[in-house]
Protein: Leucine-rich repeat and WD repeat-containing protein 1
Organism: Physeter macrocephalus
Amino acid sequence: MGPLSARLLIQRGRPKSDRLGKIRSLDLSGLNLLSEHLDPKLLSRLKQLQELDLSNNQLETLPANLGLSHLRILRCTNNQLGDVTVLCQFPQLEELSLEGNPFLTVSDNLKVSFLLPRLRKVNGKDASSTCSQVENLNRELTSRVTAHWEKFMAALSPEEEAEKAQADFVRSAVRDVRYGPESLSDFTQWRVRMISEELVASGGTQVHEADISERPSKATATQEPRARPVASKRPGDVPVNLSPNKRVCTSPLAQVEGSPVGSAGSQTALQLEPLHFLQCHSKNNSPRDLETQLWACAFEPAWDEGTSLGGQAGATSQTVATCGGEAVCVIDCQTGIVLHKYKAPSEEFFSVAWTALTVVTQAGHKKRWSVLAAAGLRGLVRLLHVQAGFCCGLIRAHKKAIATLCFSPTHETHLFTASYDKRIILWDIGAPNHDYEFQASQLLTLDTTSIALRLCPVASCPDAYLLAGCEGGCHCWDVRLDQPQKRRVCEVEFVFSEGAEATGRRVDGLAFVNEDVVASKGSSLGTICLWSWSQTWQGRGSGSTVAVVVLARLQWSPTELAYFSLSTCPGEGMVLCGDEEGNVWIYDVRPLVAQQPPPPAAPQAPTQILKWPQPRALGQTVNRTMVNMVVADPTFTYLTALTDSNIVAIWRRNQP
């Protein structure tokens, strides 16, 4: 494609006209345009142009003087753009699309928000949250640059030339003023330079916190409101939390059926009260989004100074992280408030895991703070500083999607990641520095013959062996770091029955009930298997497979569908699993693991099955609700379930 012509613009412009000055919308997508093909003299004749599509070209930059002062919508997806500062020539821009430009970073997203005060949408999503982040960063940077100016000028000797000193100040500010994670350093240094130059120009008498404060009030109004707890409660002591764009229903419509179905009714049903049904992963915060799949959730351990990595004994955590679609949410189970929400455009999160790191402050004090690891489709691990609300580390872990991840229960910085590339990698994410930056290193690579779906360090010896439920069965690896090999193959495969079909069956649920008993699902239809790690390992011979020593089998849904993840609550002896009908199966297995062999011949019925009705408060019909995952906090006070219809359900156990 050569330079643009007036004839081409008229052909592709709308409404149809023989005058360029009448065109309001112009589609120049898919023409293999280069930057030099955009003729400013020609394009500046489009005096009324409001919408321009430059997608699917080969643009590396945009000319700085296009003269399109009325432009409101600009699409530049799938190009080679490397700089966004030129977009400041479009002060009326309200919608911008930049996806598919591989050289743009998160810093460029922040620059766009700063430069375009009227911007409402970026890549089809609400820009208000980014605007808020930019305002906070700008406020802090302005304060730090001003303090640096005062310190710099106080140290200035009278004989130094003012002009040279001012130039030195700009350089020193860019070098020394730091704030936020390294991933945002391009933006923060860019803003530090601008603020410094403004200080110098005004002689240090005036510092503007940027033009963001001049944004129209509607931009502020569209910002997602913060969820706030409501003090009053409805009858029945069910909290009412009117959290905008998050609430599905907390009402009598959400009554849960709890059915004790244990043997001869010998086990009393748990008293579980429904607290919240949330819709916090919706695309564009739409209450009509019932399609986003929610894949994983994990309670934040109740860390306490001086306790082990497993958390404080008997402590209750009411903070749970959930992931699905492009978002990771951190939720307070008691109030139903979404405390933090992290989004990564074009990502789909499949797994989350918590750890607590010990950091040393500049004053020399040791502190522990929680870090949440999240990973998914793009093969990246994001380390989220939950309290600060930003991503403080990024590990390019795999070239294919990450199916699951977990932290070591004994080494707070050791992280296992399992990918569709049929590899499990053990990482040391390291301790963050004062700027919350991580330097991850790879410790081990474990080769698998099929995709690992669930990872589980062996409870009695987590530094020695790792279990994995895979598409092709249940496998075990030696993960001792004192061994020389840094790339290892599977030590042994566990089989759950005898015969030609004993091996290679998918295991999509795996967790320890206590230090010895393992719960696994998927090896046989309609059951969950409880087996002994120690007895199984003792019976290991020289072969590559070993039959598990079954302690009991639990009755579960007869569905042929897969990937319903089970979980356990070791402190309470509970096993949990969802199903394809929206049920939550609950098993109190303490009597089973305490009994003497042989195991019962028939699968044991669940202690209780929880059900809840379709969310009629949405005014929509959900044809099918599947519970992909259900977890409980360490004391089984709160229960959180995720569905394939974009709903997070939270219950609380009422103590008798």
Remarks:
- The CA atoms of residues 142 and 209 lie 6 Å apart.
